[in-house]
Amino acid sequence: MAWSSAPLWLLVLLAIAQWESSVGASSHSMKYFYTSISDPSQGQQPHFVAVGYVDDQVFVHYDSHSRRMKPQVSWMEKVGKEDPQYWDRETHIHRASEETFRGGLETLRRRYNQSEGLHTWQNIYGCELQRDGSKRGFYQFGYEGRTFITFDKETPTWVAPVPQAQITQRKWDADPGNNQGRKTYLEEICIEWLEKYLSYGKETLLRTETPKVTVSSRTEVEDGMEMHICRVDGFYPREIDASWRRDGEVWLEETFHGSVAPNADGTYHYWLSIRIDPKERSRYRCHVEHDGLQEPLDLELKEPTNSKSNLGLIIGCVVAALVLVCVIAGIVVFFKKRQDDYKAAPTSDKGSSSSDQGSNQKV
């Protein structure tokens, strides 16, 4: 594979960067990404990495080199002060996960009748607290970058989309107590810890930065059509609604757009463009809605100041983004399928840990 020579830590970050969040405005989430790799040629690279995210911010990290769960943001120091055993407890959980994932890779390699070499075993799980107060939880495993098994929201039981996962499905469903405990973690314990982390990091995670919106325009030399580019910069949180409107209605024809991308200061930027007939310029607006705005913003289009076209730049950005997606597609495919709302469940004794010890089940 083209990505086999890249550092595992970089692959994990790229996977997370490409994973599109489906949560609404002002929602918050906590999620963990586990990646285990079995390629002996990886040399000094860690064969296991666990990354914890609150919203879009890495807050904890563990890998098979350090073998310690470590804070990645300053506000996590408050956790250790309030709970002196927190870091030892989280380290113990992830050391166990590391060993379980190592064994899982070998089990799955034999189950798929594969030779030794590059193989990956991954897990994503977490919870979301949405603006309207609703809660969601999700749990999913992937092998070789594809969905292997997922946790069902209703039963609770496991769903095996591939034949090789049916053995695991029967094994895990044979322990309904563990399934119920996992459901409890997603619905209650995970949400409790998310709210706790949001209180610790409120200066960063609950802040609001107002977007700066500008529109630039160019005339196409070839046919006289106009290219208008709406740039939105410096906003936080990440969720934003930006679109082209014609006569007040969303307009998608002859449009391009980028992905919401981070700035060095922790804010985000985004762009969208449209190609129109100059005679209809007055009908179009760049429409932006964000928590940092008191009311939606509509910017009118102006007559271009020169004849240089920006179409090449826009297409170049789109092509570059597509190349990046293709490079890591094998890793991120199974991240995209999200789980629906879960029903309430009894409290368990896992409340002392923010990560789920259920990840240590053997395949």
How many strands in all? 17
Oligomer: single chain
Helical coverage, percent range: 25-40%
Please, what is the average pLDDT? 83
End-to-end Cα distance: 25 Å
Describe the structure.
By secondary structure, this protein is an alpha+beta fold. Helices cover 28% and strands 28% of the residues. The protein is built from eight helices and 17 strands. Strands 4-3-2-1-5-6-7-8 form an eight-stranded antiparallel beta sheet, with helices on both faces. Strands 9, 10, 13, 14 and 15 form a five-stranded antiparallel beta sheet that branches. The chain is elongated, with a radius of gyration of 23 Å. The two termini are 25 Å apart.
What is the element layout, followed by pairings?
Elements: H1 8-18, E1 28-37, E2 48-54, E3 57-63, E4 70-71, H2 77-82, H3 86-111, E5 120-129, E6 135-143, E7 146-151, E8 158-159, H4 166-173, H5 176-200, H6 202-205, E9 212-219, E10 226-235, E11 241-246, E12 249-250, E13 255-257, E14 261-262, E15 268-276, E16 284-289, E17 297-300, H7 311-327, H8 329-332
Antiparallel strand pairs: 1-2, 1-5, 2-3, 3-4, 5-6, 6-7, 7-8, 9-10, 10-15, 11-12, 11-16, 13-15, 14-15, 16-17
